[in-house]
């Protein structure tokens, strides 16, 4: 059974009814890393929001199965607890909640849903500090409100720290490379690569090929006008880097 199976997914903006996803088909197996590339406005972020269960979008047709379960009937929190992790292009800021406190609540909610007890605070602190250190996140940053006043790079590193802590089975990363300088890109990619495993799959959404030099995908898809219009190996990303998206714009129109 595939880890994630998206079949003929259609979704529109709830507010005005504009259809953005127009029949997405995608099958992701455990252990695989897929890249989704595509021109600006093709629906890449919308796909990640629909997978996360964001209310601004309505699914009008199709199915999304995660471990064989229809996630479209699950709320965002249930999806997270089931093992999905979405790292957004614009990570949300939570004023008034220290990063450390947020991480603890997220981890304990997940443990509870899995029938595990809370991690004792000293064990939790040790675990977070260890993982934070690998992401170049200082103890001082952990005391600051989540993402508030964080630089672009700090936000992305804090997303990957959350991911490392929660150990999801499916990670969807939307434009994780945007706004990163080369050093931060390395830290973030190393974090993602540490999480690669036979039980886990990654969907890496990116406009640019650059990230895929660091996180080498098994399969590359091109999303254009709300549909996957081409699928290939890592060489497809290189071809796009060279030729741009001109060949694919309007393909699905
Ligand atoms: P990408 O991530 O590929 O650049 P998006 O999914 O962000 O594309 O956007 C696809 C299209 O849908 C764009 O034309 C964008 O302006 C529009 N769109 C997405 N979400 C909304 C929204 N909540 N309200 C209005 N327009 C939206
Ligand atoms: Mg965009
Ligand atoms: Mg986007």
TrEMBL record:
GO molecular function: ATP binding; ATP hydrolysis activity
Keywords of the record: ATP-binding, Nucleotide-binding
InterPro entries: AAA+_ATPase, ABC_transporter-like_ATP-bd, FeS-cluster_ATPase_SufC, P-loop_NTPase
SUPFAM superfamilies per record: P-loop containing nucleoside triphosphate hydrolases
Domain of life: Bacteria
NCBIfam families noted in UniProt: sufC
Family according to the record: Belongs to the ABC transporter superfamily. Ycf16 family.
Protein name per its UniProtKB record: Fe-S cluster assembly ATP-binding protein
Protein species of origin: Breoghania corrubedonensis
């Amino acid at each position: 059974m595939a880890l994630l199976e998206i079949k003929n997914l259609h979704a529109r903006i709830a507010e005005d009814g504009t259809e953005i996803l127009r029949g997405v088909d995608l099958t992701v197996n455990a252990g695989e890393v897929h890249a989704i590339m595509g021109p600006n406005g093709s629906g890449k972020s919308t796909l990640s929001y629909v997978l996360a269960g964001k209310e601004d979008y309505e699914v009008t047709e199709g199915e999304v199965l995660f471990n064989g379960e229809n996630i479209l009937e699950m709320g965002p929190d249930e999806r997270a607890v089931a093992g999905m992790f979405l790292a957004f292009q614009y990570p949300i800021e939570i004023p008034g909640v220290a990063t450390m406190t947020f991480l603890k609540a997220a981890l304990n909610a997940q443990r509870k849903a899995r029938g595990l007890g809370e991690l004792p605070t000293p064990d939790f602190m040790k675990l977070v500090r260890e993982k934070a250190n690998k992401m170049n996140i200082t103890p001082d940053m952990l005391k600051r409100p989540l993402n508030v006043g964080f630089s672009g790079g700090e936000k992305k590193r804090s997303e990957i720290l959350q991911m490392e802590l929660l150990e999801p089975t499916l990670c969807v990363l939307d434009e994780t490379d945007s706004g990163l300088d080369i050093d931060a890109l390395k830290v973030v990619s190393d974090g993602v690569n540490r999480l690669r495993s036979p039980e886990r799959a990654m969907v890496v959404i990116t406009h640019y090929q650059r990230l895929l030099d660091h996180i080498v995908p098994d399969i590359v898809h091109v999303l254009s006008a709300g549909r996957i219009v081409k699928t290939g190996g890592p060489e497809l990303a290189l071809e796009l880097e060279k030729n741009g998206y001109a060949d694919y714009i309007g393909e699905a129109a």
